[in-house]
Each structure stands twice: as C-alpha cells, then as structure tokens.
C-alpha cells in the first residue's frame, strides 16, 4: 500500500462562501477539498490545538478509540468522483490477542479532522494526486495576503 500513496499534510484552510477550502498537499503539489464551514473550523481547532469548552464529536471518537486501545494508523484520500472526494480511515488495535487493522470508508472532512486531532499521517493515492489541479500558487498568494489559516 505504501508504494501507491504519497504523504501529504493540511497546508492551509480558507473560509469561503460555500464552506471551507482545505488545502492538502506536499512540496510538489497542493489541492483543495471543499468542506462545510463547521468542519473547516473543527479541523482548524485541532491543528491549532485550541482548547474546547466541551468535547466535540471527534473528541468523543478519540475517547472511544482510547478506551478500546485503538489508534488511528493513518488516513488515505483515495479518489474524487463528481467533485466529491473519497477517503479511508485506517484504525489499528494492538492488544494481548494480537494486532487488528480495520479500514473504514469515511468522509474526507471527518478523516482530516480525526487525523488532525490524533496527529496521524495523511496520505493521498498517487492516481488521485496526478489528476487533481495544483493549487500551490493560489495557496502561496493567500498566505502572502494573510487571508487563510496557515497550518
């Protein structure tokens, strides 16, 4: 699997009229995943380690994972179909009975929020990375103007 994916990170978040643009990529290329406003805010909170008054849904999930000895191994953004991105959340449980790995279909917004909260690696499939538009210059202009959150 590791040969078919590339490591990426959340490079920036920009609120927009229709939601939030999450810039994901590496030194070679950055692409955008559109998410709802609230998910953009949640991802930004986890990245900036902003204290929360009450646990959010993703905090609750982290507590459940911890209670069962489950770690978020990594997240993979796998494909885009009709402008909708697809992702997989890979969970690992190590205990006295052995190791179990479970791969779940998940929204990219939830996957990115969980990865940000758990500080887990994020990957993108090579085939997806090759077909998305490079938004590196757009992100650089946004960062120069100070409009977006630089993660």
Characteristics:
151 residues, Bifunctional nuclease domain, 8-stranded mixed β-sheet, 5 helices, alpha+beta, 32% helix
Q: Topology of this protein?
A:
Layout: E1 5-16, E2 19-25, E3 30-35, H1 37-47, H2 57-67, E4 70-81, E5 84-95, E6 98-106, H3 108-118, E7 122-125, H4 126-131, H5 136-145, E8 149-150
Parallel strand pairs: 4-7
Antiparallel strand pairs: 1-2, 1-7, 1-8, 2-3, 4-5, 5-6
Helix pairs in contact: 1-3, 2-3
Helix count? 5
The ordered H/E elements are EEEHHEEEHEHHE
Number of strands: 8
What share of residues is helical?
25-40%
* Overall 3D form: globular
Uncertain stretches = none
> Span from first to last CA?
27 Å
CATH architecture: Roll
Structural summary, described in words:
The protein has a single domain (2-150), classed as Bifunctional nuclease domain (Roll). Helix 1 (37-47) runs parallel beside helix 3 (108-118). The protein has five helices and eight strands; from the N terminus they run E-E-E-H-H-E-E-E-H-E-H-H-E. The protein has helices at residues 37-47, 57-67, 108-118, 126-131, 136-145, and strands spanning 5-16, 19-25, 30-35, 70-81, 84-95, 98-106, 122-125, 149-150. With 151 residues, the chain is of the alpha+beta class. The radius of gyration is 16 Å and the shape is globular.
